[in-house]
């Protein structure tokens, strides 16, 4: 029988009382026991009781108070949304407006000051954990909102209900905890604003495991991450969920291996296209490890597919298999002639994990949500195929959305920001080719006064930093006197990719 999120949070509160000495969260500089997790949750919950109504914005990075703040907001019956301290003020303001936030929980004193009612969690004293419970009748209540890049130039919010997340937990928690490393600590590298962190955090804590929260100040330092993973010998790392880009970073350090981390035995990898060469390097460093190929959009609580890759799959060619749909999920293929269970076309996901809409409600992409055979459905925009065994493979996108380091990015949002700079007539954002020495995104500019070269590029880069989060910043900006056009008079993106994508 499926468990509600209310029952899972009851289990977590019980763990805060019965496993008081066990480590729950492990950061770079400090850690928090399950008892401490309960006391911090109670302190923030008490502070919220006097705050104005509305959603809770949690503003910080990966401080020990971030998870208690999320728990406190949930027990207070408020949905939460997280904004990282790296976000520019304009981005934070858009999130506040879209979610109609009523209160800010600042877990980092460096977080931006806003006009909203603000609670600095670091100033709150611990309180004795009382009987915090969720009402099981409120499973359709909002759990959290994540934000992704918007094709309209404005980021769009993706609300996830308690019921949608509970549907994910029903199959993903036992898979993760039942894996080769599932009795040990889990490792979370994702930003707290990224949906991958939501599947990491609660999957581990509901099961009473320890959780490593890798700090993004060490993004370019695999040795620092390894040092953190060795900081608590009584909580050895057993499982890790990450993007291909993060695994590539870690594999640059020869100490990322089974000799250094002998209990690290199971990996979940997804969020963007995965190269076999990367997985073979991972298997070489961790012989016999489980490599789970994962897939799923934020609109469906992050993960809908998780498939252990065999040696044959790693030695094969073409898109890597994602296996069949998991419990409660269904995959349909829009072949252009209607929905089918097999074949090639746009992938449509159906079932209890599927969300209902984007925020704001008038966002044009809300047309991607619907109902199929009495169940919620979502058009993913992914072009893929389902074979006769029910196994899914993804071939690419049918639109201008790309993934960089696991983050979904609408190229149009970058372009719309760039053309706000005086003198820029056209801007085209591209994802660099895999063979390019420039990783990530390339922005090509055309307009007046661009003979100023570096000065103009610097001005554009400063404007982008003030309007976009760091993960959307182009790795390279180039100036072009003309942009190739198609016969229909539109920018020829294929020609642009050939000319600039490998620059």
From TrEMBL:
- Tell me the classification of the organism that encodes this protein: Bacteria, Pseudomonadati, Pseudomonadota, Alphaproteobacteria, Rhodobacterales
Q: Which InterPro entries does the record cross-reference, listed alphabetically?
A: AMP-bd_C (IPR025110), AMP-bd_C_sf (IPR045851), AMP-binding_CS (IPR020845), AMP-dep_synth/lig_dom (IPR000873), ANL_N_sf (IPR042099)
Q: The AMP-dependent synthetase/ligase domain covers which part of the protein?
A: 17-359
Record protein name field:
AMP-binding protein
Q: Which organism is it from?
A: Tropicibacter oceani
Q: Taking every annotated instance into account, which residue ranges of this chain make up the domain AMP-binding enzyme C-terminal?
A: 413-490
Against Gene3D superfamilies, the record matches this protein to: 3.30.300.30, N-terminal domain of ligase-like
| Lineage top rank: taxon | Bacteria
């Amino acid at each position: 029988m499926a468990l509600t999120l209310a029952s899972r949070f009851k289990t977590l509160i019980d763990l805060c009382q019965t496993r008081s000495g066990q480590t729950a969260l492990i950061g770079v500089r400090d850690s928090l026991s399950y008892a401490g997790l309960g006391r911090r949750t109670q302190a923030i919950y008490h502070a919220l009781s006097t705050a104005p109504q509305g959603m809770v914005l949690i503003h910080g990075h990966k401080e020990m108070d971030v998870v208690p703040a999320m728990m406190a907001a949930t027990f207070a019956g408020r949905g939460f949304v997280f904004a990282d301290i790296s976000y520019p003020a304009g981005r934070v303001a858009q999130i506040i407006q879209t979610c109609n936030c009523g209160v800010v929980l600042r877990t980092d004193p460096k977080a931006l000051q806003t006009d909203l009612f603000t609670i600095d969690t670091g100033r709150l004293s611990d309180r004795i954990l009382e009987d915090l419970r969720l009402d099981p009748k409120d499973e359709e209540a909002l759990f959290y909102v994540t934000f992704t890049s918007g094709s309209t130039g404005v980021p769009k919010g993706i609300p996830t209900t308690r019921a949608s997340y509970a549907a994910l937990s029903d199959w993903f928690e036992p898979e993760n905890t039942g894996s080769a490393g599932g009795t040990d600590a889990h490792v979370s590298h994702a930003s707290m604003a990224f949906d991958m962190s939501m599947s990491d955090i609660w999957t581990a804590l509901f099961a009473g495991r320890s959780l490593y929260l890798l700090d993004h100040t060490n993004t370019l330092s695999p040795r620092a991450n390894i040092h953190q993973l060795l900081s608590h010998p009584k909580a050895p790392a057993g499982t890790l969920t990450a993007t291909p880009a993060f695994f590539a970073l870690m594999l640059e350090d020869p100490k990322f291996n089974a000799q250094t981390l002998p209990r690290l035995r199971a990996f979940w990898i997804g969020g963007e296209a995965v190269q076999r060469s990367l997985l073979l390097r991972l298997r070489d460093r961790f012989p016999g490890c489980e490599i789970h190929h994962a897939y799923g959009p934020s609109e469906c609580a992050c993960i809908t597919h998780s498939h252990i890759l065999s040696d044959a799959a790693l030695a094969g060619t073409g898109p890597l298999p994602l296996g069949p749909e998991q419990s409660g999920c269904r995959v349909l293929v829009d072949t252009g002639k209607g929905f089918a269970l097999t074949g090639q076309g746009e992938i449509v996901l159906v079932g209890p994990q599927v969300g209902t809409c984007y925020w704001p409600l008038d966002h044009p992409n809300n047309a991607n949500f619907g109902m199929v055979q009495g169940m919620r459905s979502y058009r993913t925009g992914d072009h893929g195929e389902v074979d006769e065994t029910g196994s899914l493979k993804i071939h690419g996108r049918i639109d201008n959305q790309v993934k960089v380091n696991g983050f979904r990015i609408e190229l149009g949002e970058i372009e719309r920001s760039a053309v706000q700079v005086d003198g820029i007539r056209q801007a085209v954002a591209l994802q660099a080719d895999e063979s390019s020495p420039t990783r990530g995104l390339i922005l090509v500019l055309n307009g007046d006064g661009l003979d100023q070269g570096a000065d103009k590029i610097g001005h554009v880069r400063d404007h982008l930093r003030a309007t976009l989060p760091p993960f959307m910043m182009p790795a390279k900006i180039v100036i072009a006197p003309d942009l190739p056009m198609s016969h229909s008079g539109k920018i020829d993106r294929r020609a642009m990719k050939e000319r600039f994508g490998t620059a």
